[in-house]
Amino acid sequence: MRDAFHEALDQISDQLVEMTRLAGSAMSRATTALLDADLQLAESVIAADENIDDLRRQLDNMAIDLLARQQPVATDLRMVVTAMRMSADLERMGDLARHIAKVARLRYPDSAIPPVLRPTIVDMGHEAERIVIQTGAVIHSKDVHEAQALEQADDAMDALHRKIFNTLLSGSWDQGVQAAVDVTLVGRYYERFADHAVSVARRVVYLVTGEWADEDAEIPGIDVGDDDNDES
Amino acid sequence: MRDAFHEALDQISDQLVEMTRLAGSAMSRATTALLDADLQLAESVIAADENIDDLRRQLDNMAIDLLARQQPVATDLRMVVTAMRMSADLERMGDLARHIAKVARLRYPDSAIPPVLRPTIVDMGHEAERIVIQTGAVIHSKDVHEAQALEQADDAMDALHRKIFNTLLSGSWDQGVQAAVDVTLVGRYYERFADHAVSVARRVVYLVTGEWADEDAEIPGIDVGDDDNDES
């Protein structure tokens, strides 16, 4: 039988998994809203972000309460602190889905995404969904190998992000400046979403192995800011 | 005389102020590197980000050590947890300065910023410096009114950010897609830098008053993602 501390920690872990579910649902709906110029769907994503924020507040209060009541030390202490960091990442992932929904809303009744980039955005949406599902599985299983597989999924996202820049800078871009600005921002939101997911997975690895993955590998290429895989 | 716990907390607070100093210096040099297409300066900003990351790691270790040794509860506990969140914000501010330096490096020997937007970027650089200096002062003084003044500085940054979009989308943009992409990203980095500074100030207010400022006020306007004043 588990003691009170580890029971509480299990509860926190379940909340984190629930946050991945909400962030994934938000991102999936935001992608559809963006591609279909679906205003109602966009509004629903924007409104629902409140729920992820609430969940984070609850989780952080549980964690602080646990620190105060149980006074954990060593690994137990690090687990609680790390859970709070994961909740910050997951809340941010919800924000990024909301940002994408806002771009959809801003350009309604048009779609912000010109036809030439629709396949790339569809792929980014799928990749984001895959990544956040894997993140939930990793929090649940604490499987280090599964966590490492997430780094590869993030590489796929980075490749899609580069594809956006390649399309924009190919010299044949004829969709105007507004569309260029929109896809630049949207591309960055998807990429950051994946970065935060990887950050969550790295925290799981850290909890299991005590070692923090190399967080600042430079990714060569045309784009900038791809090396965002850091702790924030 | 202060007890061991509050002495340690003072030390952590001093480290946070030092982090604002480093982030401010990085941002100031990144702005110069960007405007002057100064490769060496850009490289030095990119390399120096390591120092901010180190400081954050040290600070977090001090905080975790303090939790383990002193087992604080109630307000004392919240102070330590909040300090760790501040260090995350400040580390991220360093990352954003590094991103700007990377744009400078990517476009060297050209400047990424076309003449029409130089005055706006100069202003954003100044605003960023002002904001981070104020952030350091607020951490030191824990003055709630000073913290609230930071919200206004952030409004000034948001206005500059909108100015970039207005210039891009005025219909008279003739600087090409690459420059549009660069200034879109650079503008976002400055804006996020200010957001994180405001987030630090809000945490100070929270520590003093126990109340968390409204974090999600919508800013109407042409741009997207301006309502990023959240906890991450």
UniProtKB/TrEMBL annotation, chains A, B:
Its main location: cytoplasm. It comes from Arsenicicoccus piscis. Keywords: Cytoplasm, Phosphate transport, Transport. SUPFAM superfamilies: PhoU-like (SSF109755). Plays a role in the regulation of phosphate uptake. PANTHER family: PHOSPHATE-SPECIFIC TRANSPORT SYSTEM ACCESSORY PROTEIN PHOU. This is Phosphate-specific transport system accessory protein PhoU. Residues 16-103, 121-204 form the PhoU domain. It is found in: Cytoplasm. Homodimer. Pfam families: PhoU. It comes from the Bacteria. Belongs to the PhoU family. InterPro entries: PhoU (IPR028366), PhoU-like_sf (IPR038078), PhoU_dom (IPR026022).
